[in-house]
């Protein structure tokens, strides 16, 4: 057994028109713009960065896209913790590819946030200062290599439930980023399930390790969908704007219904005595997650919050010279291109 290395604590707008050389400025009625925006939303068409949008819509999206981008980047840490101790070359190649995918997801999403006027620097500074959040799940430690399988199966599985509907979200750049991300999440989920299935065909000790890991990750995975609907004040407005298309509780139920048959096929159980099929509802009933634990983790008191943010800060600080060098190189290259063009023109 490899020793765990994830050392966490245990515990108004104007439109200009030009006519006959005279620029005429027409005050466009804000009500009219709002009506156009509402019409686009009701047709389930996309809002694009150049379109007018209510300031609150823009702010809500920046918050959601930033939180999503941060989750992808912070989410590299718990699994990255095991890359150097993968049990075989094949497992190492799979895990490396998966963790790199998550970096890519973060970058697509920061780019989507940029189209709303929020720079990556600004968002990262806010994350490090604790002013923006990331998914609560990444504040739990990875104590064994088995956790790589469980995260792939349950955490990426929950992410898929959350993210597939986002492919049709109302803001264009976010929805298009999600299409590619979802394809990769599907690979993540399958590799996790395949790892666990391989272990279940192994020794008694390996089977016990899978069950122990699933026991730790089940409840935090259910919490990934956010608080219950009656305690989620932003949901209604986000659904009206087409940013969200399903409520937290609807998605949580979908995830439970999807996961139970998979657990049966795998030969593991979930740590919930209240989990049983409800013929009348056509869904599985399940117990209430510990929302006090959820809010404690969200507020910064989970087992790994400090470690995750400190690691991100260290990487950001240590990478400053790379960002400065890349910027200087881009500026010099642009100046060189300009000089060459000027010389050519002078010939
Ligand atoms: Fe991802
Ligand atoms: Fe993933």
What does this structure look like?
The chain is mostly helical and 347 residues long. It has a domain of 217 residues: Ferritin, core subunit, four-helix bundle (Ferritin). 63% of the residues lie in helices and 5% in strands. It contains 13 helices and 4 strands. It has a two-stranded antiparallel sheet. A hairpin with a 4-residue loop joins strand 3 and strand 4. Helix 6 runs antiparallel to helix 7. The longest helix has 29 residues. It is globular. The N and C termini lie far apart (72 Å). One fe (ii) ion (FE2) binds next to helix 4 and helix 7.
List the keywords.
phenylacetyl-CoA 1,2-epoxidase activity, Ferritin, two-stranded antiparallel sheet, oxidoreductase, mainly alpha, Ferritin-like, globular, 347 residues, Aromatic_CoA_ox/epox, EC 1.14.13.149, single chain, binds fe (ii) ion
Helix-strand blueprint:
Layout lengths: L13 E6 L2 E6 L2 H13 L12 H20 L1 H5 L8 H26 L5 H9 L17 H18 L8 H29 L3 H20 L11 H6 L7 H19 L9 E3 L4 E3 L5 H11 L3 H14 L1 H27 L1
Antiparallel strand pairs: 1-2, 3-4
Helix pairs in contact: 2-4, 4-7, 6-7, 6-8, 6-10
Q: Architecture of the domain at 42-225 and 237-269 in CATH?
A: Up-down Bundle
Briefly note the structural class of the backbone: mainly alpha
Largest sheet: 2 strands, antiparallel
Shape: globular
CATH superfamily of the domain at 42-225 and 237-269: Ferritin, core subunit, four-helix bundle
Question: DSSP helix count?
Answer: 13
Poorly predicted tracts of residues? 10-25
Query: What is the CA-CA span between the terminal residues?
Result: 72 Å
Q: Provide the CATH topology of the domain at 42-225 and 237-269.
A: Ferritin
- As a percent range, the share of helical residues equals 55-70%
Main β-sheet, spatial strand arrangement: 1-2
Which strand-content bin applies to the residues? 5-15%
CATH class division of the domain at 42-225 and 237-269 = Mainly Alpha
- What is the count of β-strands? 4
Mean pLDDT equals 90
GO molecular function: phenylacetyl-CoA 1,2-epoxidase activity
Region (Disordered): 1-22
Protein name: Ring-1,2-phenylacetyl-CoA epoxidase subunit PaaA
EC number: 1.14.13.149
